[in-house]
Amino acid sequence: xxxxxxxxxxxxxxxxxxxxLIRTNKYKYPLRRIVQKRKxxxxxxxxxxxxxxxxxxxxxxxRSYHEINDTFIIAMIYLSKAGLLSDADIKRELSVRDRYxxxxxxxxxxxxxxxxxxxxxxxxxxxxxxxxxxxxxxxxWFNHQLARDIQEKNSLYDLGRTNYYNRGFEYTKHDEPxxxxxxxxxxxxxxxxxxxxxxVLTSIPKExxxxxxxxxxxxxxxxxxxxxxxEPKELVTxxxxxxxxxxxxxxxxxxxxxxxxxxxxxxxxxxxxxxFPEAKIVDAIDKIFQK
Length: 291
Fold this sequence. Notes:
291 residues, alpha/beta, Rossmann fold, five-stranded parallel beta sheet, 13 helices, 5 strands
């Protein structure tokens, strides 16, 4: 039997490891500012399965990366939630790490946990929110989670899921198909979706934020190029839909339809219907249950 993960100890060790690596290479900072000038400085911070991977790939002609130092950010999120990192600590780590990585597009859903700290640390940066309507998002997320290799329970990546979805909800009788598959209660996912997107929308000034709907990634190149002040021809548009789920498992159809509607409406209705007036929750769920 593997030793049970001590999340605080493991997170602190992970944070220290990356912090030491970054700080031992600080001599690179001044040289990079001279020989590797950034054409733009941007972050993409949509939820998982909203297009953050695609945005990083579309900008692959630049210094663009998806989920760089992911375990470092997972550890930072956990320690922040545990009250062991202050806002000042977070902003310091983000700043030092940015100088070390020196990316033009730093794309990661993990940044949705720190939008306020990001805008306060990088006042001139630009931000891209990739967003998917809550119903197609949760359908895609379940496909992604259950079709991929199961992450080891005793791992930082499992802690990453705990950061997002362990929200104190108990399983209802309607959640039983999710419990049987090792998933969290339905409310956990919809609350996460609403919280993540709301944090970004309320933290980042509108003039520094570009919202791209997932379904429009393929046609958003001109808008993205204009926002970042680069030429559209510099984008790799054939990579506009990367990292698709391996298969469709139709998990939502295993649940009570009214339960799905009520839960989605409770947590997501305001943001979903504001951003997606064409994809009202009830209509989207009706469509899934008609398949």
